[in-house]
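Board notes (copied after class):
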Amino acid sequence: MHDDLTPDTKDALIRVAHDLADVARPETLRHFRTGLSSENKADGGRFDPVTEADRAAERAMRDVLARMRPQDAILGEEYGPQPGTSGLTWVLDPIDGTRGYISGTPTWGVLVSVADADGPLFGLIDQPYIGERFSGGFGEATLVGPRGTSSLRTRATRPLAEATLLTTFPEIGTPEDHAAFRRVADRVRLVRYGMDCYGYALLAAGQVDLVIEAGLQPYDVQAPIAVVTAAGGIATDWEGRPAHGGGRLLAAANPAIHAAALELLAGN
């Protein structure tokens, strides 16, 4: 980890992260609920849409980084990796939840994080239409929204039978992934679908207990991991290992419910 980062450097990284979200907001809102057309990036009959809003938001964020942090690397969903020399990487998902975006639901978000080789150091989940921004890292976990500014804190321990579980797709991952997910879903009180990154924001805000997903990329997970862990939660893969490389993610409000879900995902 970058334990040698000075307070001034940390403050500068936080400011840049917010600047990135600030420039992405108008690019995403410009096209939201306008009937914007999309292209399909996926092969094999799947649907993985991308829009001009995705691309414009990422271009705007890359322009900011070119001016303010040219020494840092970038990993973005739409324009790929760009090398750097500082050991820090900005991980950008200009619209996480493009399916929701083109459907008009306000569950998509702009994801921004800065990471070193060990994972995300600071991240934010920004929902431009609602006007909520969830941020976490470097000792802060904060929500800024229509009701003002408040601290983020995950839920206290409760039995799995009383838990709320969120995910994006009912057909989560592979058939084996889906079977493992069902073992947890069948034990909780409430399961809700279609949340995209907003599910992790709700977890950090203490509204729900678990988010379980599979088939993820680094730009899908790094900002949510930073926000959830800063708020007191836990985010690992389905074997309890670091998950910032993507794949399968289990985010939990507290150690007890994380352990309970992890055991079921393993088939125990």
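Comment from the instructor: The chain has a mean pLDDT of 95. The chain has seven helices and 15 strands.
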